[in-house]
Design a protein that fits this description.
5 strands; alpha+beta
Length: about 170
């Protein structure tokens, strides 16, 4: 299984479809809210959401949706990353509800060599998240510093920190 890419492996215009998707549960949403201390009733209180919001039900907290999509993109985009440099933009387009299944895809917008070190480059990508019916729910752009093939070889190959079995 591929886990990230080197600079040379990225092509401007390439689209990576992240799979599998993830069905968002009420538990996922509540746990994320509790871990991040986001106690807004739109996410936590069904009675409030049903009676006082335009949605008539709980909406999954947007930062969880972003985090989930970012995580989905790691095997295709940033699994070999040296650093995530910037989240350039983050837009929540439509709500996600408990029981929705999310999928993501990332498009390579641009790439360029690092100005300070010749063993790495910067990749500019846009990730879109969409629900099972195709509705786009979240879009974000980020810049990721990734190694070149030279960087990887000089540091022991694809998985230098992976322990070897004790046969």
């Amino acid at each position: 299984m591929q886990f990230g890419r080197t600079y040379e492996e990225f092509e401007v215009g390439a689209v990576y479809r992240h799979w599998p998707g993830k069905t968002v549960t009420e538990y996922d949403d509540h746990l994320f809210c509790l871990l991040t201390m986001n106690h807004h009733p739109l996410h936590m209180d069904t009675n409030y959401a049903e009676k006082t919001t335009d949605f008539g039900r709980n909406v999954v907290v947007g930062n969880y949706i972003y985090s989930l999509l970012l995580g989905m993109s790691v095997p295709d985009v940033s699994g070999k990353a040296i650093a995530n440099l910037e989240i350039e933009s983050l837009r929540h387009i439509a709500p996600t509800f408990h029981g929705d299944t999310l999928y993501g895809e990332t498009t390579v917008l641009d790439k360029w060599p690092s100005k300070s070190k010749d063993d790495r480059g910067i990749v500019h990508v846009e990730t879109k998240g969409y629900k099972q019916d195709g509705t786009v729910v979240c879009v974000f752009r980020r810049k990721v510093m990734v190694p070149t093939e030279t960087y990887t070889k000089e540091r022991g190959g694809e998985q230098p920190g992976r322990p070897t079995p004790l046969s």
